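[audit] Reproducing an earlier prediction to check determinism. Same input, same settings, fresh worker. If the tokens differ from the archived copy the diff job will pick it up downstream; this log only records the rerun itself.
[audit] input (191 residues):
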Amino acid sequence: AAALASVQDASSIRPYIIHVKPGVYYESGALTIPEYVTVLGESVENTKVYFDENVGNYTAYNCAAMMTNNTSLQNISVYITNNLDNTKSQLVAIGGSNLSQPLLSASDLNNISIASVNIIMTSDVTYANAAAIQMHKTAYKLSDVNITCTISFMAYNLYAIKQALGVCIYDSVSISITGTVNNGSAYRDWE
């Protein structure tokens, strides 16, 4: 979180790469990846980020990692193993930074890449909506992404990938959803 917060001057002519060394990391609030920044782990096997429960430290959408324009997340495993903020009725592991804006007036997001990333969501909390990846009005690419949602709670809507008014290019995406779901799917486009 500190490395992301320290980026103040990233641009198209001065992009940043934040290297995340092998290890297990615990975050207790939402991470926003600034524009023109790549977060690059060593590998999904040895670079693991766990998001802890912490009321008030997550966005309105209860999103763990927020992507902005021209950003990339690579070679990392993201773990959501409990509720992030138990005052929220939804949960998103990785989302666009425009999720809290009204859909039709939300700003467009472009050039987002999620590559060689594992997303593991396990929880015993009831949600109205849960998604491993959720994007609104976003052009993004998924490559070598593994999504595992194992839930022991009731989710009204559970999606591995949910988007609205966007474009997703994907290659080698693996999805596993297990649990009690009223309305669930691997992919949902709200266009």
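[audit] rerun output stored. Observation attached for the diff report: The longest strand covers residues 138-164.
[audit] end
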